[in-house]
Amino acid sequence: MSITAYEGQYEGEAAIWLKAGRYEAAILPGIGGNLICFRDTENGYRFLHEPGAEEMEAFKASPGIHGIPVLFPPNRYEDGKFPWNGQTYQLPVNEVATGNHLHGFLHTAAWEVEEFGSGKTESFVTVFIKVDENHPSYQYLPFKYTMKLRYTLGEGGLSQQVQVHNDGDDVMPCLLAFHTAINAPFAPGSTPQDYLVKATIGNRWELNDRMLPTGKFQELEPGEAQLRDEGVNPYFAPMDNHYTAVAQNGRNRMELTDSKAGVTLVYDVGTSYKQWMIWNNGASEQFFCPEPQINLVNAPMVDLPADEIGLFSLKPGEYWEESSRLYVK
Predict the structure, then answer these.
(1) Which element (helix H / strand E) includes 16?
(2) Which residue stretches, if any, does this entry annotate as coiled coil (predicted)?
(3) Please, are residues 144 and 315 in contact by the beta-carbon 8 Å criterion?
(4) Where are the beta strands (DSSP E) in 138-234?
(5) Cα dihedral sign, 287-292-293-297
(6) Contact yes or no for 145/165 (Cβ under 8 A)
(7) SS (H, E, C) 44-112
(8) Which of 96, 100, 203, 251 is the most exposed place for a label (fewest CB within 10 A)?
(9) 3-state secondary structure of 228
(10) 172 near 213, Cβ under 8 Å?
(11) Helix or strand run (H / E) with residue 7
(12) Predicted local distance difference test score (pLDDT) of residue 1
């Protein structure tokens, strides 16, 4: 099996490419540390929603629906307010339709490459971002931290490890999600109707007209119950829904099966992700986003137990880390 890692380009942007046998992947350090593609070159599978050459400018302006964007802090915050440890920080209101802050700061920021290389069984790359008083986002959330992403590629698919370290002197929020964009169809010759998706969802959070949780649950619709149990077409209805994550058989995962190709893509995420967002771009039949998320949307403004809503914190010097994997079975 040929295994390598090298500097290259992706549609004109600096990239680190990983190759291992039939698999290849690329990360864009300068655009949010986004793992922009994961492919099976033997079968022509493109598992992630990639931007084409004509989409690159739009992608760079708003890199939220391609690859695996890093959201920190993720999703929406009412009026941009972020109460924390006796203070309220003001995030920019960047979603005019709802009057909320959306998706944090790291998916648009430049990351740095720490190392890349290859061994006998895997190729790998580690990228990092260090936030301190010199980083533009510090004016909104004045905490010092370092985040690292390490991707490895091998026979077992694509592995992701994320680590956050509190570099500062204050207790900091650790709220994170990945806006992972999955192609359906991912196989040439297949159609959207050939696909079924399952996910380890629990309860559906009720959202108000500003897409913020009310703290109450809604009854699952029949299609959502199928999503949890036997599987449903990913475009059975327009989805922009928020769920609790409930591990099944000890695992928190999304499984996407192509019945025509006889292949299942598994997105196995860690159990630290207490919530799912599932968005399918208005049931567009192109791609959908199963988004593993640590915290409830707007968690600092919701009066529920911190552990229940994933309102995680890190004391000075502490680490948080979690791993996920995309693979085929």
Answers:
(1) strand 13-20
(2) none
(3) no
(4) 145-154, 157-166, 172-173, 177-178, 182-183, 195-199, 201-207, 213-218
(5) positive
(6) yes
(7) CEECECCCCHHHHHHHHHCCCCCCECEEECCCEEECCEEEECCEEEECCCCECCCCEEECECCCCCCCE
(8) 96
(9) helix
(10) no
(11) strand 3-10
(12) 85
The tokens for 148 are: 């690292």
Which residues, other chains included, contact 266 with Cβ-Cβ below 8 Å and sequence gap of 6+? 253, 254, 255, 325, 326, 327, 328, 329
Q: What share of the chain is helix, strand, coil (3-state, %, to 5)?
A: 10, 50, 45
Question: In 167-260, where do the E strands start and end?
Answer: 172-173, 177-178, 182-183, 195-199, 201-207, 213-218, 240-245, 252-258
Residue 306 has which token pair?
């911190």
- Domain boundaries along the sequence of the chain: 3-186+270-328
Architecture of domain 3-186+270-328: Distorted Sandwich (2.70)
CA distances from 299 to 75, 104, 295 (A): 10, 14, 6
List, in order, residues 6 or more apart from 120 with CB less than 8 Å away.
3
What DSSP element (H or E) covers 225? helix 222-228
Torsion of CA 73, 268, 129, 241, to 10 degrees: -20
> Is there a contact between 10 and 46 (Cβ–Cβ < 8 Å)?
no
- Alpha carbon distance 58, 217 (integer Å): 36
Residue 62: both structure tokens together: 């708003």
Structure-token pair, residue 102: 């959306």
- The residue assigned the tokens 């929603």 is 49
Whether this model's pTM surpasses 0.85: yes
Is there a contact between 26 and 37 (Cβ–Cβ < 8 Å)? yes
- The pLDDT tens digits for 108-162 are 999 999 999 999 999 999 999 999 999 999 999 999 999 999 999 999 999 999 9
